[in-house]
Amino acid sequence: MKEYMEESQKKNDLFFTCSLIEYIARKTKNTKKYIIEKLGKKV
Predict the structure, then answer these.
(1) Whole-angstrom Cα distance, residue 7 to residue 32?
(2) pLDDT tens, residue by residue, 16-27
(3) What pTM did the predictor assign?
(4) What is the Cα–Cα distance from 26 to 16, expressed in whole angstroms?
(5) CA–CA dist 20, 1 (Å, integer)
(6) What is the pLDDT of residues 1-43, one digit of tens each?
(7) How far apart are CA 25 and CA 35, in angstroms?
(8) What does the alpha-carbon distance between residue 1 and residue 18 come to, in Å, rounded to a whole number?
C-alpha cells in the first residue's frame, strides 16, 4: 500500500510541475522549452 501511495504522489507531483510550466508559459507568452531551460540547473 505504501508503494502505491508513493507512486501516486509522484504522479501528482509530475502533473503539478507540468501544469505550472504550462501556466507560466502562457502567462509570459513564451514557449514551454524556454521556461524549462530557465528553471533547469546549469551543468
Answers:
(1) 25
(2) 999 999 999 999
(3) 0.74
(4) 15
(5) 29
(6) 566 668 888 889 999 999 999 999 999 999 999 999 998 866 5
(7) 6
(8) 26
